[in-house]
Amino acid sequence: MIPFNKHWTLFLDRDGVINHNVSGYITRKEDFTFCIGAEKAIALMSRQFHKICVLTNQQCVGKSIITEQILLDIHQKMLTEVFAAEGRIDGIFYCPHLAGEGCACRKPGTGMPLAAKKQHPSIIFEQSIMVGDRLTDLQMGRSLGMYCVWIKGPDAYAEKVPEEYFDLCCQSLAELADTLQENQQ
Ligand SMILES: [Zn+2]
Fold first, then answer.
1. Ligand 1 centre and the CA of 38: distance in Å?
2. pLDDT score at 81
3. I want to staple 46 with a disulfide (CB 3.0 to 4.6 A). Which of 63, 87, 124, 169 is the partner?
């Protein structure tokens, strides 16, 4: 089990972890729907973690499929609903660049967690958990020494993740929140 406590940070991937994956990209607020129990799970984990940050690759901005403003509106909807469930998200970091641009922020690059630490210097990567459904999420977490949780739910992108990339595998954020609560130190 992951030896976490209330000083730890939780990093969450967005699509397939917080909200249902759709084919293609989330391009409208209406298409952003939480995975079952995800808002409640974030609320529960808000009481268990020092910081909660969302890290999301959104190449659809770079491809001009959506504007940055639409992405911000979608994130506002996410925040509003998490807040309504009495949870909190301390930061949302996104990479709008194209895969071929070679930026430092697109996962598995580490630019987004490094930006989170700049904003919240109390974050310690060795005392952080990265939760994602894709190998690139977990590769990013591993390269900063984080514990990693693979969400292999019905919502998860059908991708095989080798065992060395995760410390725990859950079907959903809801299952993760329950598992962490049972093991809180
Ligand atoms: Zn980027």
1. 26
2. 97
3. 87
